Amino acid sequence: MMQMGGPPAGLMVHFARADGDGFMLCNVWRTEDDMRSFYDAVVLPRLAEAGLAAEDPSVSTMWGFARP
């Protein structure tokens, strides 16, 4: 992420964890539009370049978020 100039606009939290034979990536964005813009412009093209299939992200509304 830092090689791309830092976190993208609207990204609040990013983490990943092992999930079976792969990984689950979880992100908290300020808005769904921020996420969709980054996903369409950055994630999808890079996955395609790597020959990987993309899945539509699962989006849930968050009602509260706190960080120390």
Strand content: 25-35%
Give me the Rg, rounded.
13 Å
Low-confidence stretches: none
Number of strands: 2
The chain-level structural class is alpha+beta
Largest sheet: 2 strands, antiparallel
**Mean of pLDDT:** 89
As laid out across the biggest beta sheet, the strand order is: 1-2
Query: Separation of termini?
Result: 22 Å
Summed up, the helix count is 1
Percentage of residues assigned to helices? 25-40%
Shape call: globular
Order of helices and strands: EEH
Map the helices and strands.
Layout: E1 11-19, E2 22-29, H1 32-49
Antiparallel strand pairs: 1-2
Structural notes for this entry:
The model has no long low-confidence stretch (mean pLDDT 89). It contains 1 helix and 2 strands, in the order E-E-H. The two termini are 22 Å apart. It is α+β, with helices and mostly antiparallel strands and 68 residues long.
